[in-house]
Amino acid sequence: MAEINHFEYGWITPALSYALSVLGSILGLVCAGRIRRAQTNGQRAWWGLLSAWALGGTAIWAMHFMAMLGFAVENTRIRYDVPLTVASTAIAVVAVGIGLAIVGTGRLNAVRLIAGGIFTGAGVASMHYTGMAAMRLNGSLDYDTVRVVLSVVIAVVASTVALWLAMTVRRGLAIFASALVMGVAVNGMHFTGMSALSVHRHERAGEVTGAGVSTLLVPIMLAVIFGVVGLLYALLAAPTDDDRAAAAYLDGRRVAEPAAATPVAAPDPVGLRARSTLGQPGTPFPSRRDTPPR
Question: Is the pTM here over 0.70, yes or no?
């Protein structure tokens, strides 16, 4: 059995993985808070997609591979199968997106929350072990069943709590505190699953094929950076409740201008107006019938 080191570079990789999970959780919670306040189905789908990418893509998947930078096995190189690595990304984002769709439509209740948490937790665990299956090294991977089950339970509980927080937390300080808790849960699930792993080296050293960690690191970091920048831009560009309230107030104050009133002639009981215009060009001479009797 080969010796495994989960912290090859010391505290830097777990610290960065925790920071990524907290950052993704903050952005995901903020985006998820817009789902129930959205006024159209298109807006709900948009904020759900952004929240799924923040939680699934940054808080879970990017955190996983940042932690894997510190993973090493003695006397063997580690490579990654690129298609399986990409598949693990899709699993994380889709699982979180479906979980948000379950709890974000209709009235939030225990049944919806538990169903969404189970589905999302299973997806998170699938992402983790798919990412582990993408590893290529000179040996075979074995897992302790009890710890694998424990990691899945942690993933389901963490996902349920995350979905509940996503639908209920609104204030800035509460979102930050919730993201700290979610970061602990996500990292706890990851390292519990990693503790279940054991590697049996092969006697004959063969050629290890696949992409190296340094090769994957650049696209992963670029995806995280552009994803975070895009999420921040979407949040800053979207109108807030105060903006909508101000627009409604201004619309309420806009009153249509009244139409010009038709002039009303003053009463002329003795025909003074007719006498004053008598003799002017274009004024007809009064007939005998129009002349008042003497």
Answer: yes
